[in-house]
């Protein structure tokens, strides 16, 4: 997560994620920071869930084939 959507001030990052919404400017600095942090946490939880689901789905693949399947899928 080091692209332009994840670096800079909280408002800049929110604009990267949510677009140029006028409501972002109406947030106080504390609210913008909190929203930024909560969205980062949600993003991390989502990524972790996707990783765990991918690993779980590999349990249906024979063990000898899993490394090749992981490589193909990029997990």
Distance between the termini: 16 Å
SSE topology string: HHHH
Low-confidence stretches: none
Gross morphology: elongated
Count of distinct strands: 0
Number of domains: 1
Count of helices?
4
Residues in helix, %:
55-70%
Structural class: mainly alpha
Largest sheet: none
- The chain-level mean pLDDT equals 87
- Strand fraction band? under 5%
Radius of gyration: 18 Å
Written overview of the protein:
- With 75 residues, the protein is an all-alpha fold.
- The protein contains 4 helices and no strands.
- The protein is elongated.
Jot down its keywords.
75 residues; mainly alpha; 4 helices
Helix-strand blueprint:
Layout: H1 10-18, H2 22-25, H3 29-58, H4 66-73
Quick overview of this protein structure:
This protein has helices spanning 10-18, 22-25, 29-58, 66-73. Helix content is 68%, strand content 0%.
């Amino acid at each position: 997560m080091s692209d332009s959507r994840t670096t800079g001030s909280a408002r800049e990052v929110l604009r990267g994620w949510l677009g140029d919404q006028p409501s972002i400017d109406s947030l106080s600095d504390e609210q913008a920071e909190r929203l930024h942090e909560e969205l980062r946490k949600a993003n991390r939880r989502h990524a972790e869930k996707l990783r765990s689901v991918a690993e779980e789905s590999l349990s249906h693949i024979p063990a000898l084939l899993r490394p090749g399947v992981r490589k193909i899928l990029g997990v």
